[in-house]
Amino acid sequence: ASVDAPCLGVLAAELSLLCCHNDLSITQQASLGLHHLLCIAKHQNGDTEKNKSTKYEKHGNYCLLSPSSDTEFLPKFLQRDRTKIAQNVGKTLTPSLLTDFTWSLLMTLSSPNYVTAFKASTILKLTLEYYAHKVTMVSKIVDAIYKKLRENSSHVMRHAMLRVITLLTRTSPKKVIFQLMDYPVPADNTLILMWHAAGSESSVAPHVLKTILLILKGKPGKMDDSLLERRRFSLDTTNMMPVAASQALCTLLPVCSYKKAVAQFFPQLLMALMVQLFYISDLRQMAEDMPFYAQDALRVLLNCSGLQQVDIALKKKNCWNEFSEELLKHHGIYLIAKTLSDYNFPQFPETLHYLYKLSVEGPRRSEESVITVIFLTELLNNFFKDPFPEEFLVLFRNWVNDSNPTVSKLSLQKIANMAPVINEIENVCSLLICILDAFHSKDKTVIIRALFTLRKLLGKLDKVTYSSLCTRIASSYCPLMDHSNEGIRSTAIRHFGELLRDMNQYTWMLSDVVLGGLVPLILFLEDTEKSVVKACKHTLAICASELNWSTSYLLKDEYYNFELVVLNLCNNLLVSHENYITDLISDTLGFLRSSRIYLRKASIILIGYLAKLGGHLLLRDEIEVMLEAIDRVVRDEDPMIRELAEITHNIFKEIDHRLTSSNVKQTFRRLFHFIYVKKLKPLYYYNWPNNLASSPVKMKETKDYK
Known about the structure:
One of its GO terms (cellular component) is cytoplasm. It comes from Crocuta crocuta. InterPro entries: ARM-like (IPR011989), ARM-type_fold (IPR016024), HEAT_Maestro (IPR055406), Maestro-like_HEAT (IPR048465), Maestro_heat-like_prot (IPR045206). This is MROH9 protein. Residues 2-209 form the Maestro-like HEAT-repeats domain. By secondary structure, the chain is an all-alpha fold. Among the domains are: 7-48 and 77-217, no CATH class; 258-382, no CATH class; 562-688. 66% of the residues lie in helices and 1% in strands. The protein contains 37 helices and 2 strands. The chain has helices spanning 8-18, 24-44, 47-50, 75-78, 82-92, 95-108, 114-131, 138-151, 158-171, 173-180, 189-198, 205-216, 241-252, 259-264, 266-286, 293-304, 308-316, 319-322, 329-342, 348-361, 366-383, 390-400, 405-417, 428-437, 444-458, 463-480, 486-502, 507-516, 518-523, 530-546, 562-576, 581-589, 597-614, 620-634, 639-659, 663-675, 696-705, and strands at residues 56-59, 62-65. A two-stranded antiparallel ribbon has the order 1-2. β1 (56-59) and β2 (62-65) form a beta hairpin. The chain is elongated, with a radius of gyration of 42 Å.
């Protein structure tokens, strides 16, 4: 009683077997020994401290326990009564000792003596029937059974071992299932037998499926050979447990005892298997022999859930082959959702609820997000009319700026399709603002999709709401006019013009924004991409019309000359928006540092004309900053830019010289500029056409100058 006895579990197993011996004298001695063993175990549990009636006779360094008053431990009750033995041992031994007891009996199942092996199997099964929850090292036991059955598939105690698996699954389903999924795929016949044993009882079916769903959250990868020799019980990026779990579902889902659990977890199983389809499709690009159990399991799920017609229809649509093509995987998901909807699958309410739950839970793997968006969108399309209920619209608003570009584009695509009913959406302003936020995406394709989505919505938006947001929308286009991607540049510039045309009754609201975007509109007339040049001409023509500038005729291809356009615009600015000239110069200075040669050329020319017009408005500090910027360009590697920069530099020098004259002269000059406005004449003759004198443009310019 005063020392730990670590071998009590093993000894209890030996004595239990001897309690069932054919020799009565051995049985009596064994039952007496087991009686004392259980008393020791009970004392070690601390029960005797509560029971002060137990007495001990001390003999040196040890003591003898007096006979217990508990009739359950009496030797006569332990003789050849396997049920009593199992119940008392299971109740009394601590978890670690009971595990030793279980392990010892398990090893005895391989005894060459069939009688002994049978007795061991009976006691083992009876013990686990009531006390399996106390057994630790479940994974080790499962692994031992697998190895024994694999070595000898016709083992005489095979059914007993499989029953052990069943009993352990009752109380430790996660440990058993994780261990069963930790073997190489595809599973051999021994493993399939053990799967059947683990899934044989309906009471544990929900727990088994929950554990499998947990495993299916993992992303399968290429397994190293070293992993075959060691145990692992956690999901990681290199494991093949999800593949094994998919194969296990092919075995477990058709089992009758699982019918109720399958119905309960249908949405979770459906989504998890589609995610695995994605993963396995990627792996099959590298290893064509990779088993496609996720597809098989998904088809089994459909058939077990009363959706046989859906499975047949998907096969006719060649759906399953689409997952083997990288570009068609998304369409495969769409086909599954569409076909389920077409057949009005009865699991729609719980599937929709689960998808909504997935959508609001937070960060997930990118593949899961994409599948969720595709599936949810298609279900909503088939069961709801646009616009969707607000609780779902919130999801799409959030997805617009998702970190996954594919999710963003799918959301924008669906929102664009709502254009005909845009005015029926309650929080339409917040929806439009979310789309404007997508303009800041790092992914170019998202920005393009956001631009076209916004344009489609604005085409149907009522003017009252439109006018309340037009300034903010127009301002959001301006940064994109200088985007590195020519497609985004041209689209933003063109849509900026379309907005001005839409809001022609609100020109007074947009005047500041138009002038704020004027510099890129002018400079990108020199873009090397024709689509950008056409967009600039298109939008500048609209600006000229709305702001009463006589510029549009200069933008025609047959008469177009960049410097003439700049000259004409600057002359108009001098008359109508003189106070903005300083700001326009500041905006243009930023383009002098551009890596694109055409932008540096164009900005040098524009700055020169703006300075010539508004030099009287500039302060000395401003001129010094501008001269410093021009000085850097004078040393440009391009000779044409150096030549143009010299002319612009001289213009600023002239302005600076005028500022050194007396205050009286400066005041007089400023007053003169306000009273008498003189239009500019060409300064650079950059790409000047030879036939300009006979053109309608020149004739009109000559008339204007007169």
